[in-house]
Specification:
Elements: H1 2-6, H2 10-21, E1 36-40, E2 43-46, E3 52-54, H3 68-80, H4 87-94, H5 99-111, E4 124-132, E5 149-158, E6 161-169, H6 175-185, E7 191-194, E8 209-212, H7 223-239, H8 246-261, H9 268-279, H10 287-291
Parallel strand pairs: 4-7, 7-8
Antiparallel strand pairs: 1-2, 2-3, 4-5, 5-6
Helix pairs in contact: 3-9, 4-5
Length: about 290
């Protein structure tokens, strides 16, 4: 009820986006002047250089024919669902005209779930890989499993508890792929805990402390990664019915990371604001780009 009252009209939503984009007041992107006129829907004109500026340009809302009020309700619905949502569910809840519209909105929002310049993991970090996706055929196991997508996982360990996580789709379990993943997600001088796979050899030369994990009492290596992988696969099975293509899996992983790293947040409103903050910093992606 509080959400519906605050964002009852398109003008309410436009003002919220305006405040997110210009927290210190409007500045013309061309000349830097602070004075403007409101011209038409989402468009302002600088009083100094007379250039028009859309508050939606350079955001995921650019060129969208969907009203901001509908976008806001979609974002609220997405953050309110603890386990995620499907395009079909979003279409039904919002009364959208097509499945394609709902699917496009969800994928744009998934891209906005990665904050530009986000901090890397640090301290004690478990790193491993797992296969996600298709059905294994021929009984082949391990790092050579067929018809599956290889995903690297990094789990921050704080006082023997799982902290933040990161995922990335990788082509193979070679040193080049695994070292690149570690350098992308972990701060230098962090302690990287791995299994005995030789693809991790040489991390110490890259500025990390490397430890090889020993089996636990339950006969598992890397227990925090093991738990995280189990939760991820359960989420994919429940939210995506176990189906995810390699082309789009990265964005589903971004959504899971966004939700998992904020699992202790008690404020849906704060998650709504964080996702919108990211949304106004990212360039739009068209439907053709999403399916290409």
């Amino acid at each position: 009820m509080e959400f519906e009252k605050r964002f009852a009209t398109e003008q309410d939503c436009r003002k919220y986006v305006f405040d997110l984009r210009y927290p210190s007041g409007f500045l013309c992107p061309d000349c830097g002047a602070a004075s403007f006129w409101y011209i038409r829907r989402h468009t302002y004109r600088c009083q100094a250089c007379k250039k028009d500026c859309s508050i939606l340009a350079g955001t995921i809302f650019q060129d969208s024919h969907t009203p901001l009020a509908v976008w806001f309700r979609a974002i609220w619905y997405v953050v309110a669902q603890k386990q995620g949502t499907s395009a079909l569910s979003l279409k039904q809840v919002l009364g959208l005209g097509s499945y394609q519209t709902a699917w496009t909105m969800l994928h744009k929002l998934r891209r906005a779930m990665v904050r530009p310049g986000r901090e890397k993991l640090s301290g004690l970090i478990e790193v491993d890989e797992t296969y996600v996706g298709g059905i294994r055929q021929g009984g082949k196991r391990g790092r050579g499993s067929e018809n599956k997508i290889l995903v690297a996982i990094a789990v921050e360990v704080n006082d023997k508890k799982i902290g933040r996580v990161r995922f990335k789709v990788i082509d193979d379990a070679s040193s080049e792929s695994l070292h690149g993943f570690v350098e992308e997600v972990a701060e230098k001088n962090s302690t990287i805990i791995t299994d005995g796979w030789n693809g991790y050899n040489g991390l110490s030369a890259k500025g990390y402390l490397q430890e090889v994990s020993e089996k636990q009492e339950d006969n598992t290596l890397l227990p925090h990664v093991h738990t995280t992988v189990s939760l991820l696969k359960r989420w994919i099975l429940g939210t995506l019915q176990g189906s995810c293509s390699k082309e789009h899996l990265s964005y589903y992983l971004d959504e899971y990371t966004f939700r998992y790293n904020r699992r202790k947040s008690k404020s849906r409103g704060l998650l709504f604001m964080r996702l919108l903050e990211n949304a106004v910093q990212l360039e739009t992606t068209t439907y053709k780009q999403l399916i290409s």
